[in-house]
Amino acid sequence: MERRDPMTGNREVITGSDFKRMLSGAYGEFLLEYEGIDALSRKRQGERSALPGTHVLRTMGAAVMPLVDVKDESIGGLARRVASAAVLGARGTSGVVLAQLLRGIAKGLSGKNDATSSEFGKAFQYGILYAQRVLPPTVETVLVAAAKAVAKGAYHAVRANLPISEILQAAIDEGRKALAEEKREEPGALVMQTFLQGCMKGLDGHFVSPAVSLSLGVGEDRLSIPDPRRDLVRPYCVTFRIVGSKARARDVEHRLQEECRFVAVVHDERSLLVHVHTDHPGVVVEQAIGWGKLRSFRVTDMAEAHALTADYESLLPVALLAVASDAARGLRLTELGANVIVPGRREECPSVAELLHAAHSDLARTYVIVSGDSSMELVLRQAKRILGERVELVLAKDEAEQDKAVALYDKKRTAKENAKAMRKLLE
């Protein structure tokens, strides 16, 4: 189908199917290049390397998994689903930047069934701006320079109303120029180039979809490649009441666990209170209809900033969540006073979703989150952006600082008071 641009006469239209191919192409390109990105990072940083290639591949895997069985064919709807999954599945600095790029693209395509090349090009510019904005001035400065160069190339191509393939090529060319001027390769900038090249290949029909990857056994059991099924996120928080139900809370919880990541079912005098995290809210509704009258139904996209107001009483007013590199480390932090442990280390950063799932539980109203490595900063800041005042961050640079901060925790203080005291100690 063609739709003429009223300003220039360009007839190209980017459909939802085109968008799927572009994202699948990017995923396929990261499958080919992630080890090279990791190797470059190790070459530059040695043991301090955070494996940005692996992190961005896993983020991209989380982003494309919703495309496997999605029924929505509109480009705006697909972009929103992909962005939500990427934001929650983001790991490491490179993953957060990629997720924000996709979030900006979704913002530009919001509500559209399809898009002209000019409309898509402008949405892509939105994405570059979102990616730039998430980075502090001191982090990955070469990536910022590459992003600005890519934005410049895209801007001129969009103004000329070129086809989307030429817009992408212009962005790639400007990015390469920026890298050449730096006279050195940087992992962050290479991530940006890999994404653009993958989108180009996908648009031309050269890609590996996650569905094909799974059917061929591409995963840790076969080729030591990260399995995207591990990174599937459930981005929708669904809460509702079942009135007049004779079903037992335990039975409802058991049945919902088949389709949901997090499930909490609480029985009060007249109803069952249900709280789940799922990637298919409609499936949850279909199951629940047979259990009784549904009331107070609410669906929240957890990738967007939202307030958490639990319908049931939390066990604690405040809890301490700490990121631990292994089981022994988790035991140590628990002994020091941590209430919740999230696994994570420099080479395998926790995802934003893993932090959010803990905060959505009924354990506490507020949380203090203490990291154990400086490489996790952007992931924790994304959790804070989404959850707002419910969480306070303490960004310890290493495990020694983390020990000091956790040991200072006082359950009688508020989250803000605890975080303030910990930050002061680490100054």
Question: How many helical stretches?
Answer: 16
Strand order of the largest sheet: 4-5-3-6
For the biggest sheet, the summary is: 4 strands, antiparallel
CATH architecture term of the largest domain: Alpha Horseshoe
For the structure shown, list the relevant keywords.
alpha/beta, Alpha-Beta Plaits, four-stranded parallel sheet, globular, 427 residues
Characterize the structure shown.
By secondary structure, the protein is an alpha/beta fold. The protein has 3 domains: 218 residues, Serine Threonine Protein Phosphatase 5, Tetratricopeptide repeat (Alpha Horseshoe); 66 residues, Alpha-Beta Plaits (2-Layer Sandwich), CATH 3.30.70; 111 residues, Rossmann fold, CATH 3.40.50. It is built from 16 helices and 10 strands. The chain has a 4-stranded antiparallel sheet, covered by helices on one side. Helix 2 crosses helix 3. This is DAK2 domain protein. One of its GO terms (molecular function) is glycerone kinase activity.
How are the SSEs placed, and which strands pair?
Blueprint: E1 13-14, H1 16-45, H2 52-64, H3 75-89, H4 92-109, E2 115-116, H5 117-133, H6 141-159, H7 164-182, H8 187-203, H9 210-215, E3 236-243, H10 249-256, E4 260-267, E5 271-278, H11 281-289, E6 293-301, E7 316-324, H12 327-336, E8 340-343, H13 352-359, E9 364-370, H14 377-387, E10 391-394, H15 399-407, H16 415-426
Parallel strand pairs: 7-8, 7-9, 9-10
Antiparallel strand pairs: 1-2, 3-5, 3-6, 4-5
Helix pairs in contact: 1-2, 1-3, 1-8, 2-3, 2-4, 3-4, 4-5, 5-6, 6-7, 6-8, 7-8, 13-14, 15-16
